[in-house]
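Need Talin 2a's 3D structure for a figure. Predict it.
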Amino acid sequence: MNNGSCIKLNPTAQALRTLAQAARGVASSTTDPKAAAAMLDSARDVMEGSALLIHEAKQALISPGDAESQQRLAQVAKAVSHSLNNCVNCLPGQKDVDMALKSIGEASKKLLIETMPSASKSFQEAQSELNQTAAELNQSAGEVVHASRGSSSQLAVASGKFSEDFDEFLDAGIEMAGHTQKKDDQVQVIGNLKNISMASSKLLLAAKSLSVDPAAANAKHLLAAAARAVTDSINQLITLCTQQAPGQNECDNALRELEAVRGMLDNPNEPVSDLSYFDCIESVMENSKVLGESMAGISQNCKTGDVPAFGDCVGSASKALCGLTEAAGQASYLVGVSDPNSQAGHQGLVDPIQFAKANQAIQMACQNLVDPGSSPSQVLSAATIVAKHTSALCNACRLASSKTTNPVAKRHFVQSAKEVANSTANLVKTIKALDGDFSDENRNKCRVATAPLIEAVENLTTFASNPEFASIPAQISREGFAAQEPIHQSARSMLDSSTYLLKTARSLVINPKDPPTWSVLAGHSRTVSDSIKSLITAIRDKAPGQRECDSSIDNINKCIRDIEQASLAAVSQNLASRDDISLEALQEQLTSTVQEIGHLIDPVSTAARGEASQLGHKVTQLARYFEPLIMASVGVTSKLRDHQQQMTFLDQTKTLAESALQMLYAAKEGGGNPKASHTHDAIEEAAQLMNEAVEDIMVTLNEAASEVGMVGGMVESIAEAMAKVSLLIPQMTKSVTCPDELGGLASQVTVDYSQLAVQGRLAAHTAEPEEIGFQIKTRVQELGHGCIFLVQKAGALQITPSDGFTKRELIQCARAVTEKVSLVLSALQTGNKGTQACITAASAVSGIIADLDTTIMFASAGTLNAENDESFADHRENILKTAKALVEDTKMLVSGAASGQDRLAQAAQSSAKTITQLTDVVKLGAASIGADDPETQVVLINAVKDVAKALAELISATKCAAGKAADDPSMYQLKSAAKVMVTNVTSLLKTVKAVEDEATRGTRALEATIECIKQELTVFQSRDAPNKTTTPEEFIRMTKGITMATAKAVAAGNSARQEDIIHTANLSRKAISDMLTTCKQAAYHPEVSEEVKNRALMFGSECTTGYIDLLEQVLFVLQKPTGDQKQQLATCSKRVAGAVTELIQTAEAMKGSEWVDPEDPTVIAETELLGAAASIEAAAKKLEQLKPRAKPKQADETLNFEEQILEAAKSIAAATSALVKSASAAQRELVAQGKVGLIPANAVDDGQWSQGLISAARMVAAATSNLCEAANASVQGHASEEKLISSAKQVAASTAQLLVACKVKADQDSEAMRRLQIAGNAVKKASDNLVRAAQKAAFDKADEANVVVKTKFVGGIAQIIAAQEEMLRKERELEEARKKLAQIRQQQYKFLPTELREDDN
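Structure prediction for Talin 2a:
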């Protein structure tokens, strides 16, 4: 045997050993010697059969192709299975069940006789006996269900009694059949008795299975379904047999229905329906009203003798009672699972009860089909039942296959559904033949056709009973069970009293003149009413989340009192400092607690508005955070020296607690009821207030954390300024008034200002016109004055560090310097308006290209239509005229590169305007072609898109070449870009002219595509690195499009149809473009070796060249369609296919030994993470290019604030990249340790990894990208420091989420988690550095002082009056803002409860 077979036999041997021990144990504990001997004999048969099975398996492995060996192996396996069944049947209790089954089978033979014996009793006696035996049989079925969960002796007794009761019931049913006057009615009675016999046998078999293996999945469900099937079959028979008894049928049916729904209250850990808690309350109210009316109707109709109306009232009462019981059971389940210590269950993949019911119904229907006594109507009815249930089974299989992630189960469900559908179709054919001719031959064909269907349904039902698909019941805590008990007690009392009431009404309707019975009926009516009242009260009092809301409200009230005590102690300076922990640790605790509270606001709000079962869990989680919040807040406050800061912390903490209290009151009022819309506004308002409170305290925390770092840097700067201030002031004054001496003197000030002064002087001399040069010079001088004042104030603050007035002056000076730096940047940009215009035009053209891509999508989808009835001819002249205007603009743009900035700006603006007009008229022209010809629309839009791309390249080349010499390399690039521009415009003109010519437009589209691909290849072969990299998996996905496009091209060449050619041109353009882009991006990935990179680039070029040859060959075939030329198409396509194969092999080589299936869910998740890391690394590269103005660095000088911002931002980008990579490594460890599955069995498994970590990594990448943009804008003077600080804080927050997502299942002591923590600390440190640099810049920033004082007297007076007017207006706005803030606080105060206001007073 091979190793695999040996491994599989080891568990078999162990199982046989365990079976032998168990058999000896059972035999030794049995008092009956015969039973003990039978047990040992059957176990011995199993052992001998297993030994023979192993021997035959060995022989089959030795000669795997021997059919005889395979047949012997199957026979031996079947014999072992039979021996195992015999062994199980020898267990105590099993033999009695088998005897009961045999007894039922023997009794059922009475139904096979052709003629029923005549009745020996009166109809009333037979009816009474049938009702009595039916009730006894129904009760015995319940006892069998109960006994199957108990001992074997109990099951033996219950099964024996069940068989006896069945025998009596069968005799009573046969007696009733003798009273039927019509043959069809008698056949129906006998058929129902057969159904009851089959259901009874299935009940005993299910009880037997459960007693053998109580832990088997779905066994309890199948037993309950079998018991309900017995009850339903009895009800059907009673309904058929007792139609003539006045009112008895309805009462008996109602009593049986009540007995059946009583079981809903026995499993409080399973949901009864899909009703929400408040739907349950509504259902109870509606059904209680219906029940009250029905009870009154029962009494009234008994008095009047209106039997039909009496029956209707009994039926309505029964339905209402069933609805009340169902609502009570569901409400009980929701109360139990809503307890914070309980866990909700999960629904299984399939419902085994549905499969079992369908299986039973199909078997019964098939039995009726093949019954020789079945009438044509019965055959058609049975066929309808079969079709209905097989359709339901197929739909269930389809849903299960779509839900499961197990490929084996998915395939099995699909195959089973096919087998059921095919066998059903075959059976329907035979039924149609039987319906046309009820001959023995057709009936025999029908019998043969039922066998495959029954077998397929049986196999499917067995597979659906797999424990893997079973539901997971809820785990309800002891507190949850205690909360359920009042509801259960009231519901049981209601059912008991209702049962007595119906029994009393059943006797009254026969004998309405019985006064004692009327008083009994009234007593039962009162009991039912009292039970329903107590049920409604219990459900309302036990509403989910109410108890938890009350407990949480008490908890937060206590926390508010604690914070008030701390505030009083702080006011009296008696707040004791915590010496057992550092300030930094307390701040981290406070920050994390506030963030967790912020994360819970939305879940609590959502639960309060519509998820009652989650309300208790969420409010309990929220309340648990407030005690550590108060402790951390008081601890931080105790370590602060500034009294104002202390009160700010305590007040904001109290505000957060009070807003949470308001949120809990609103949540309790809403209660999770989606229909209580009047409470939703209050919940949303409370959530908004709570979010604002969280934001306020987070701002204060971040300011306090950054202030600790700012103070040290300020002290050092002030100390250096103190040492130089006496020497620097006169020299700096001289440097502003004497520009000739500026270079030598500036080296003694600071490195930053000296570089700015030198560059500013050069810019002022070269700027045009002269007014801009004067403006640059003036603003640089004003910056020098601001630096003087800043150094003076720094020296003054060093002398008196506690002087608050001096601090405010220093802040104003710092702001003034920052604003003046922005003014200098603005002036420099004004002097460079030609280049700026090129940048603006390039941005506009980029937007146009994106808009054209969108238009192509609409055109491809066939939704690009004209707004009115117009033809392409109406737009052709406009397109041609605008295209010629664009050529003129191109010439101006090229000549503008060698001219001044004004002319360059004019040319760039004109070209951007013209390309906008051109795209507009081309889009109108494409729309006028009509959505019936989308391929031609795409060809036309692609042509103008090529022009736009060429213009973008031309503008970029013009910007680089502006002001350069004629022999500069950038000039050659400009000329090359101009040639491409002219070529693409010419191509557009040709395409426009060919649009209306159906004979040539396909050829024209193909020529344009070939030219476009050649231009793409030129860009691909350049040495310029791509802006980003991609994965080999993405590269392979793009190469697949080449294969499809190649096949289309060959087909188009063979057909020579213009429509095919146009489609091929459009498809080829996109496929080649995507392949070249991803090929270059994948090849330039940093982890790809140089050899693999060169291979990828080489075969990318080879594939493109081969494809161009293929398209040119198609073009040649169109012109000369000979057989030889068409043969060349296959040769060209083989060349392309070979290059594609090489590309795929190269992509696999990029991954090396780590090549994995791209469709693997875990690989997809890791790919997302690595994509996030790549995005961050790209952001870091972007930051590397964000250099401030070039200045000669000196090693002994510090950086200015712009460089500090850039350095800190680069640190954050690098740290976040390391963090995401460390997170990926941590996840690999989880997979290796088995804590997270490599391929989850279910889509929701390990959600923290597959969703939380991926989304958190994306957030980190997005936040870092925003940070880079903010840093760039801040350096260039386009954005405030506040935006930069906000971006840095967003990076820190998203990093914290990433850490939490990684730590869900990780080993805290692992190497990957250690690296993860280091990476997280690096991000935090880098964020702090950036915030510190930006806040220092903000600290040194003054209000805008770009004031030019007028020299004339009158103008000067007017200037002063205007300034005073602005000052008064600002003061008035400040006063209005203060009043608004006071009103907001007053309104918030009104939301607080009265007792809190008194405490506050």
